[in-house]
Amino acid sequence: MQTVSVAESRQLDDKTINQIGIPSMVLMERAGLKIYEDMVHNADLDLSRVLILAGTGNNGGDGLVVARLLATHNYNVSILTVGNPDHASPDHVNQQKICDYYQIPKVFMNADFNQYTTLVDALFGSGLSRNVGGDFATVIDKANAATAKIHAIDIPSGLNGDTGEVMGTAIKATSTSTIAYAKQGMVKAGANAYTGKLFVDDIGIYKGDTFDNE
Ligand SMILES: NC(=O)C1=CN([C@@H]2O[C@H](COP(=O)(O)OP(=O)(O)OC[C@H]3O[C@@H](n4cnc5c(N)ncnc54)[C@H](O)[C@@H]3O)[C@@H](O)[C@H]2O)[C@H](O)CC1
Ligand SMILES: [K+]
Questions:
Q1: What is the CA(127)–ligand 1 centre distance, in A?
Q2: What ipTM does the predicted assembly reach?
Q3: Where is the YjeF N-terminal domain (predicted)?
Protein backbone atom coordinates (compact mmCIF):
# COMPACT_ATOMS: atom_id res chain seq x y z
CA MET A 1 0.00 0.00 0.00
CA GLN A 2 1.41 3.39 -0.99
CA THR A 3 1.46 6.09 1.69
CA VAL A 4 1.97 9.86 1.70
CA SER A 5 2.95 12.41 4.35
CA VAL A 6 0.29 14.88 5.50
CA ALA A 7 2.11 17.69 3.66
CA GLU A 8 2.22 15.59 0.47
CA SER A 9 -1.50 14.83 0.81
CA ARG A 10 -2.29 18.55 1.01
CA GLN A 11 0.01 19.30 -1.93
CA LEU A 12 -1.87 16.69 -4.01
CA ASP A 13 -5.19 18.31 -3.01
CA ASP A 14 -3.85 21.68 -4.07
CA LYS A 15 -2.43 20.36 -7.38
CA THR A 16 -5.70 18.65 -8.26
CA ILE A 17 -7.79 21.72 -7.42
CA ASN A 18 -5.59 24.61 -8.54
CA GLN A 19 -3.33 23.09 -11.26
CA ILE A 20 -5.59 20.47 -12.81
CA GLY A 21 -8.78 22.42 -12.09
CA ILE A 22 -11.15 19.93 -10.42
CA PRO A 23 -13.23 22.08 -8.06
CA SER A 24 -12.84 21.29 -4.33
CA MET A 25 -16.62 20.78 -3.98
CA VAL A 26 -16.39 18.11 -6.69
CA LEU A 27 -13.60 16.34 -4.81
CA MET A 28 -15.61 16.63 -1.60
CA GLU A 29 -18.64 15.11 -3.31
CA ARG A 30 -16.56 12.21 -4.67
CA ALA A 31 -15.05 11.71 -1.22
CA GLY A 32 -18.50 11.70 0.38
CA LEU A 33 -19.83 9.20 -2.16
CA LYS A 34 -16.93 6.79 -1.59
CA ILE A 35 -17.18 7.07 2.20
CA TYR A 36 -20.97 6.48 2.00
CA GLU A 37 -20.37 3.39 -0.17
CA ASP A 38 -17.74 2.09 2.29
CA MET A 39 -20.16 2.54 5.19
CA VAL A 40 -23.22 1.04 3.48
CA HIS A 41 -21.56 -1.83 1.63
CA ASN A 42 -18.18 -2.66 3.08
CA ALA A 43 -17.70 -1.75 6.73
CA ASP A 44 -19.30 -3.85 9.49
CA LEU A 45 -21.62 -1.10 10.74
CA ASP A 46 -25.22 -0.92 12.06
CA LEU A 47 -26.58 2.23 10.38
CA SER A 48 -29.93 2.28 12.24
CA ARG A 49 -29.12 5.58 14.00
CA VAL A 50 -26.09 7.56 12.79
CA LEU A 51 -24.48 10.64 14.35
CA ILE A 52 -22.01 12.71 12.33
CA LEU A 53 -19.35 14.41 14.52
CA ALA A 54 -18.34 17.35 12.30
CA GLY A 55 -15.52 19.81 12.75
CA THR A 56 -15.70 23.16 10.89
CA GLY A 57 -13.13 22.38 8.20
CA ASN A 58 -13.24 20.19 5.06
CA ASN A 59 -13.05 16.95 7.05
CA GLY A 60 -16.30 18.16 8.57
CA GLY A 61 -17.45 19.04 5.06
CA ASP A 62 -16.93 15.42 3.97
CA GLY A 63 -19.02 14.38 6.98
CA LEU A 64 -21.87 16.69 5.93
CA VAL A 65 -21.86 15.14 2.43
CA VAL A 66 -22.15 11.70 4.07
CA ALA A 67 -24.99 13.01 6.27
CA ARG A 68 -26.91 14.19 3.21
CA LEU A 69 -26.32 10.94 1.30
CA LEU A 70 -27.56 8.92 4.29
CA ALA A 71 -30.59 11.20 4.77
CA THR A 72 -31.56 11.10 1.08
CA HIS A 73 -31.42 7.29 1.26
CA ASN A 74 -33.78 7.31 4.23
CA TYR A 75 -31.26 6.57 6.99
CA ASN A 76 -31.79 8.09 10.45
CA VAL A 77 -28.91 10.61 10.71
CA SER A 78 -28.15 13.64 12.89
CA ILE A 79 -25.27 16.13 13.01
CA LEU A 80 -23.20 17.43 15.95
CA THR A 81 -20.99 20.31 14.81
CA VAL A 82 -18.02 21.03 17.11
CA GLY A 83 -16.01 24.27 16.96
CA ASN A 84 -16.69 27.88 16.01
CA PRO A 85 -18.99 28.12 12.98
CA ASP A 86 -17.40 31.50 12.18
CA HIS A 87 -14.20 29.61 11.35
CA ALA A 88 -15.99 27.22 8.97
CA SER A 89 -14.34 26.61 5.58
CA PRO A 90 -16.24 27.81 2.47
CA ASP A 91 -17.01 24.24 1.35
CA HIS A 92 -18.23 23.41 4.87
CA VAL A 93 -20.60 26.40 4.78
CA ASN A 94 -21.96 25.21 1.41
CA GLN A 95 -22.48 21.66 2.65
CA GLN A 96 -24.27 22.92 5.80
CA LYS A 97 -26.66 24.95 3.62
CA ILE A 98 -27.44 21.77 1.63
CA CYS A 99 -28.01 19.78 4.84
CA ASP A 100 -30.34 22.55 6.04
CA TYR A 101 -32.44 22.12 2.85
CA TYR A 102 -32.98 18.46 3.83
CA GLN A 103 -33.64 19.55 7.45
CA ILE A 104 -31.13 17.05 8.86
CA PRO A 105 -31.50 17.24 12.68
CA LYS A 106 -28.75 18.95 14.71
CA VAL A 107 -27.80 17.85 18.22
CA PHE A 108 -25.46 19.49 20.75
CA MET A 109 -22.64 18.68 23.16
CA ASN A 110 -25.08 17.23 25.75
CA ALA A 111 -26.23 14.54 23.28
CA ASP A 112 -26.21 10.95 24.61
CA PHE A 113 -23.94 9.12 22.17
CA ASN A 114 -25.31 5.76 23.35
CA GLN A 115 -28.52 6.61 21.50
CA TYR A 116 -26.65 5.94 18.25
CA THR A 117 -25.44 2.75 16.57
CA THR A 118 -22.72 4.41 14.46
CA LEU A 119 -20.69 7.59 14.97
CA VAL A 120 -18.89 9.18 11.99
CA ASP A 121 -15.65 10.97 12.89
CA ALA A 122 -15.39 14.10 10.72
CA LEU A 123 -13.70 16.36 13.29
CA PHE A 124 -10.16 16.62 11.88
CA GLY A 125 -8.26 15.17 8.97
CA SER A 126 -5.06 16.45 7.35
CA GLY A 127 -5.63 19.87 8.91
CA LEU A 128 -4.82 18.73 12.48
CA SER A 129 -1.99 21.04 13.57
CA ARG A 130 -1.75 20.76 17.39
CA ASN A 131 -2.85 18.75 20.42
CA VAL A 132 -6.59 18.27 20.75
CA GLY A 133 -8.30 19.96 23.71
CA GLY A 134 -11.56 21.56 24.86
CA ASP A 135 -14.84 20.44 23.29
CA PHE A 136 -12.99 18.40 20.66
CA ALA A 137 -11.27 16.27 23.34
CA THR A 138 -14.57 15.92 25.21
CA VAL A 139 -16.34 14.67 22.08
CA ILE A 140 -13.51 12.27 21.16
CA ASP A 141 -13.43 10.74 24.66
CA LYS A 142 -17.24 10.50 24.74
CA ALA A 143 -17.22 8.78 21.33
CA ASN A 144 -14.56 6.27 22.39
CA ALA A 145 -16.55 5.48 25.56
CA ALA A 146 -19.86 5.01 23.71
CA THR A 147 -21.30 1.62 22.69
CA ALA A 148 -21.62 2.81 19.07
CA LYS A 149 -19.06 1.81 16.45
CA ILE A 150 -17.01 4.65 14.87
CA HIS A 151 -16.22 5.14 11.17
CA ALA A 152 -13.46 7.72 10.69
CA ILE A 153 -13.06 10.02 7.67
CA ASP A 154 -9.55 10.37 6.19
CA ILE A 155 -7.55 10.21 9.48
CA PRO A 156 -8.91 9.21 12.95
CA SER A 157 -9.20 12.62 14.62
CA GLY A 158 -6.31 13.31 16.98
CA LEU A 159 -3.95 10.85 15.30
CA ASN A 160 -0.81 12.47 13.87
CA GLY A 161 -0.94 11.57 10.16
CA ASP A 162 2.86 11.49 9.91
CA THR A 163 4.06 9.87 13.14
CA GLY A 164 1.02 7.88 14.28
CA GLU A 165 1.25 9.60 17.69
CA VAL A 166 -1.86 10.53 19.66
CA MET A 167 -2.15 14.34 19.83
CA GLY A 168 -3.65 14.55 23.31
CA THR A 169 -6.48 12.12 22.56
CA ALA A 170 -7.63 10.32 19.41
CA ILE A 171 -10.60 8.48 17.94
CA LYS A 172 -10.48 4.67 18.17
CA ALA A 173 -12.31 3.76 14.97
CA THR A 174 -13.75 0.42 13.91
CA SER A 175 -13.04 1.39 10.32
CA THR A 176 -11.60 4.35 8.39
CA SER A 177 -12.11 5.68 4.85
CA THR A 178 -8.95 7.56 3.86
CA ILE A 179 -8.86 9.89 0.84
CA ALA A 180 -6.57 9.06 -2.11
CA TYR A 181 -3.64 7.53 -0.16
CA ALA A 182 -3.12 6.28 3.41
CA LYS A 183 -1.15 8.81 5.45
CA GLN A 184 2.13 7.27 6.66
CA GLY A 185 1.24 7.63 10.36
CA MET A 186 -1.83 5.43 9.82
CA VAL A 187 0.26 2.38 8.98
CA LYS A 188 2.78 2.79 11.81
CA ALA A 189 2.93 0.11 14.52
CA GLY A 190 0.01 0.57 16.91
CA ALA A 191 -1.95 2.89 14.61
CA ASN A 192 -4.40 0.11 13.76
CA ALA A 193 -5.93 0.54 17.22
CA TYR A 194 -7.11 3.94 15.95
CA THR A 195 -7.83 3.27 12.24
CA GLY A 196 -9.45 -0.15 12.47
CA LYS A 197 -10.22 -1.58 9.02
CA LEU A 198 -8.79 0.78 6.38
CA PHE A 199 -10.46 1.69 3.10
CA VAL A 200 -8.42 3.77 0.61
CA ASP A 201 -10.80 5.77 -1.57
CA ASP A 202 -9.93 6.84 -5.11
CA ILE A 203 -11.47 10.26 -5.76
CA GLY A 204 -9.30 11.28 -8.71
CA ILE A 205 -6.25 12.52 -6.78
CA TYR A 206 -3.05 10.85 -7.98
CA LYS A 207 0.69 11.36 -7.39
CA GLY A 208 1.13 11.06 -11.15
CA ASP A 209 -1.72 11.63 -13.59
CA THR A 210 -3.30 8.19 -13.40
CA PHE A 211 -4.51 5.75 -10.72
CA ASP A 212 -1.46 4.01 -9.20
CA ASN A 213 -2.57 2.76 -5.82
CA GLU A 214 -3.02 -0.99 -6.32
N1 LIG B 1 -7.61 14.98 -0.05
C2 LIG B 1 -8.39 15.79 -0.69
O3 LIG B 1 -8.19 16.23 -1.75
C4 LIG B 1 -9.58 16.26 -0.08
C5 LIG B 1 -9.68 16.33 1.28
N6 LIG B 1 -10.73 16.72 1.81
C7 LIG B 1 -10.93 16.68 3.24
O8 LIG B 1 -10.40 17.86 3.80
C9 LIG B 1 -9.63 17.54 4.97
C10 LIG B 1 -8.68 18.67 5.29
O11 LIG B 1 -9.51 19.79 5.55
P12 LIG B 1 -8.98 21.12 6.28
O13 LIG B 1 -10.13 22.08 6.25
O14 LIG B 1 -7.73 21.55 5.64
O15 LIG B 1 -8.63 20.71 7.79
P16 LIG B 1 -9.40 19.76 8.83
O17 LIG B 1 -10.84 19.64 8.46
O18 LIG B 1 -8.60 18.54 8.99
O19 LIG B 1 -9.25 20.62 10.19
C20 LIG B 1 -10.09 21.75 10.34
C21 LIG B 1 -9.46 22.91 11.03
O22 LIG B 1 -9.23 22.58 12.41
C23 LIG B 1 -8.24 23.49 12.93
N24 LIG B 1 -7.43 22.70 13.88
C25 LIG B 1 -6.31 21.99 13.63
N26 LIG B 1 -5.88 21.34 14.74
C27 LIG B 1 -6.76 21.69 15.72
C28 LIG B 1 -6.87 21.39 17.12
N29 LIG B 1 -6.02 20.56 17.73
N30 LIG B 1 -7.91 21.93 17.83
C31 LIG B 1 -8.79 22.77 17.23
N32 LIG B 1 -8.77 23.10 15.91
C33 LIG B 1 -7.75 22.57 15.18
C34 LIG B 1 -7.46 23.99 11.75
O35 LIG B 1 -7.63 25.37 11.69
C36 LIG B 1 -8.11 23.30 10.55
O37 LIG B 1 -8.26 24.15 9.47
C38 LIG B 1 -9.04 16.21 4.62
O39 LIG B 1 -8.60 15.50 5.75
C40 LIG B 1 -10.20 15.51 3.93
O41 LIG B 1 -11.07 14.93 4.85
C42 LIG B 1 -11.78 17.13 0.95
O43 LIG B 1 -12.95 17.01 1.39
C44 LIG B 1 -11.80 16.38 -0.36
C45 LIG B 1 -10.64 16.58 -1.03
K1 LIG C 1 -11.43 12.37 10.94
A1: 3
A2: 0.98
A3: 9-211
